[in-house]
Amino acid sequence: MLKKSENILKIFIIIAVFTFGASIFGCSRDKGTKIVVKGSTTVLPITQRTAEEYRKKNKVAISIEGSGSGNGIKALIDGSCDIANSSREIKDKEIAKAKENSIEVKEIVVAYDMIVPVVHPSNPVNSLSVDQLKAIYNGSIINWEQFGGKNEKIVVISRDTSSGTYEVWYEKVMKKTDVARSALLQASNGAIVSAVTQNPKAIGYIGYGYLNDSIKPLKVNGIEGTISNGKSGKFPISRKLYMYVNEKKLSKEAKAYIDFILSPEGQDFVKETGYIPL
After folding, report:
1. Taking CA 60 as the corner, what is the angle to CA 58 and CA 66, rounded to the nearest 5 degrees?
2. Distance from CA of residue 141 to its chain's centroid?
3. Dist CA 207 CA 222 (whole Å)
4. What superfamily would CATH give domain 2-112+241-272?
5. Higher confidence at residue 255 or residue 8?
6. Cα angle at 210 between 204 and 212, to 5 degrees?
7. What does pLDDT average to over the chain?
8. 267 close to 109: Cβ distance less than 8 angstroms
9. Would you state the pLDDT for residue 254?
10. Widest CA span of the chain, in angstroms?
11. How confident is the model over 70-125, as pLDDT tens digits?
């Protein structure tokens, strides 16, 4: 019994030392040794990959959360993050709210991206126009047969309204008209990939960096979603990816991390994760 008690005591001491050490070496945001990043799930892979490499050479903790562009910008405004990832431009009303909170928002472009419509690999449809995508998503066209596919009802999958990807789709494809209420809403790019993978009748849209062999990308207006077409803007649903910061209170650690992302080495990791480097 004595040995068991001694072992428990040793474990407790080890945990206490680890916790104390963590508070000194990188888990205290007050000391500027922790960078908190929140926002877009589209920008998430870039953040995860670059943070992984950055931490190899720098003693800094980087907390990363993918909760949607709108939620990331909200977190920046209320002061609960250092960097807000966003796959859309900040809105005027968000800038106004930031000013009310004495926050000077600075916009930083970190990469280029495309929003690519995707279907199940078994779907014979290869290309849709922007107008056809709009008709699918507003519920005007409901059967794949109208595009040369099978006589099956289209299962429409969309991002939710807090998503920057949804915002860009809403503007560039929907022309600021609503997605049909029957659409199944998903909270992330990864969730859409999973849903389309499991349903041969489904269509969704995702950031270019989330493309993989489990889904089939569609051409838009006959144009393939390639890096060159995205960077030139030829692909109809292209966009910039952003990080937003409070310029007044940007820590030297957060600035150094962003500088790393913008460096040639950081941009190599942007390309590695499937996005278009600057």
Report:
1. 120
2. 29
3. 18
4. Periplasmic binding protein-like II (3.40.190.10)
5. 255
6. 90
7. 89
8. no
9. 97
10. 77
11. 999 999 999 999 999 999 999 999 999 999 999 999 999 999 999 999 999 999 99
- Quick one: how far is CA 37 from the chain centroid? 12
Of 209, 211, 152, 156, which Cα lies nearest the Cα of 186?
156
Tokens of 252: 């030297």
**Distance between CA atoms of residues 84 and 103, nearest Å:** 13
3-state secondary structure string across the chain: CHHHHHHHHHHHHHHHHHHHHHHHCCCCHHHCCEEEEEECCCCHHHHHHHHHHHHHHCCCEEEEEECCHHHHHHHHHCCCCCEEEECCCCCHHHHHHHHHCCCCEEEEEEEEEEEEEEECCCCCCCEECHHHHHHHHCCCCCEHHHHCCCCCECEEEEECCCCHHHHHHHHHCCCCCCCCCCCEEECCHHHHHHHHHCCCCEEEEEEHHHCCCCCEECEECCECCCHHHHHHCCCCCEEEEEEEEEHHHCCHHHHHHHHHHHCHHHHHHHHHCCCECC
Q: Among 3.30.70.20, 3.30.930.10, 3.40.190.10, 2.60.120.10, what is the CATH number of 113-238?
A: 3.40.190.10
The answer for 233, left when phi > 0, alpha when psi is -120 to 50, beta otherwise, is left
167-200 pLDDT tens trace: 999 999 999 999 999 999 999 999 999 999 999 9
Classify each residue of 3-22 as buried b or exposed e, where b means 16 or more C-beta atoms within 10 Å of its C-beta.
Answer: eeeeeeeeeeeeeeeeeeee
For residue 61, what pLDDT band results from cuts at 50, 70 and 90?
very high
Query: What's the token pair of residue 251?
Result: 């820590």
